[in-house]
Write a structure and sequence with these properties.
There is one protein chain. This protein is mainly alpha-helical. The protein has one domain. It is 64% helix and 5% strand. It has twelve helices and four strands, in the order αααααααααββαββαα. The strands form two sheets. It has a two-stranded antiparallel ribbon. Strands 3-4 form a two-stranded antiparallel ribbon.
Length: 354
């Protein structure tokens, strides 16, 4: 029985290999984009809680509290039918998050063509950000949603990654994984939140189509939740059921948080671990050290291993809590890579609660 089930899962994964590979590419691409801009933001002024706040656990608890409040508010607004408020709040947050990812590359562009001044750089950043938001609002097809989502994700993982040391990032990841498991499998309110975002066509998730003719514009608001009709004829329920799809949904969906949390640990490792090994020049000037970079890439490999494990569950066509496997794989990759590249003493950073 178990052997037959394993064979079925492998067959489903083979049928969905293109979409699963595409999603893996977006997962890796978002994190590598964040890694490329890390040198720009790896300064005390860019840390959300300052240099001293990087080791204070209370700041992580505060961040988690804000996430919970945001989730509650969005679900409450959705149940009240106030979708326009949800879209406004999220669009503003996306605009600012995308700013962090775009700004270094736009400034680099103007430097390369030797037209570099404050007005030109800021004006072009504002113009491009706004244009992308307008495009997202008017034509939120899957590739537009993915493009904006990758930029937003890269910005967020970088800003949070340079804000906390790895030990606190791991604490953040463990708490988030437990919460994600409960929110998806027990309360199921995370599925409700995901459906709301899909219905509003907002890039707080990544979309990997399973066919060339897929359109995200036609996606409904009941993708994640399987609801039974209220007027179900229980004497003959089969006739009320939709025809089953061989490979589940028409596209794979991954919440942006499933990329952000592993990415945060990658950035944090590169930012805070001991500067050991040869220096490696970066795109925006300055250098990275080979030791911390090796740990960061090892963390990314661990996250990919967690992703493969997650896909064995997703292949069945049911919603899955992504963070337990993705965060677990990333943390394991971080631990192994740190011990090999820097030694076990590098695993711990002195932290305090306040």
């Amino acid at each position: 029985m178990a052997q037959g089930e394993s064979s079925s899962i492998l067959e489903e994964m083979q049928e969905q290999w293109a979409s699963m590979t595409g999603m893996a590419g977006m997962f890796v691409g978002t994190i590598l984009l964040g890694l490329s801009i890390q040198p720009i933001y790896n300064v005390p002024e860019a840390r959300a809680f300052g240099e001293e706040g990087a080791t204070k656990a209370s700041n992580v608890i505060l961040e988690m509290f804000f996430i919970l409040i945001f989730t509650v508010v969005i679900i409450w607004l959705a149940r009240k039918g106030l979708d326009f408020i949800i879209k406004g709040i999220v669009m503003v947050a996306l605009w600012f998050s995308m700013f962090y990812a775009l700004a270094p590359y736009i400034e680099l562009f103007w430097i390369m063509i030797r037209i570099h001044n404050f007005t030109t750089v800021v004006g072009s950043i504002v113009l491009i950000n706004t244009a992308l938001m307008v495009l997202l609002h008017r034509y939120p097809e899957w590739y537009v949603v993915n493009g904006v989502g990758i930029l937003v994700g890269a910005g967020v993982i970088t800003i949070i990654g340079v804000t906390f040391v790895p030990v606190l990032i791991i604490l953040f990841m463990v708490i988030a994984a437990v919460y994600d498991h409960w929110a998806v499998n027990s309360s199921k309110h995370m599925l409700e939140l995901a459906d709301t975002m899909i219905d509003l066509k907002l890039p707080v998730l990544l979309v990997a189509p399973k066919s060339k003719d897929y359109s995200f514009l036609e996606e409904g608001d009941q993708v994640m939740r399987s609801e039974t009709p209220e007027d179900m004829d229980w004497d003959d329920p089969v006739k009320n059921m939709p025809e089953p799809k061989k490979s589940g949904r028409d596209a794979l969906f991954m919440g942006l948080g499933d990329v952000i949390f592993p990415g945060m640990l990658v950035i944090s490792a590169v930012s805070f671990l001991p500067e050991m090994g040869p220096e490696i020049p970066t795109l925006f000037g300055g250098t990275m050290h080979a030791g911390p970079l090796t740990v960061g890439l090892g963390t990314l490999v661990g996250g990919l291993a967690g992703y493969v494990a997650l896909m064995t569950q997703v292949a069945r066509g049911n919603p899955q809590a992504g963070l337990p496997l993705l965060n677990g794989g990333s943390i394991l990759g971080y631990l192994i890579a740190t011990i090999i590249a820097l030694g076990p003493t590098a695993l711990w950073q002195d932290i305090s609660f306040f």
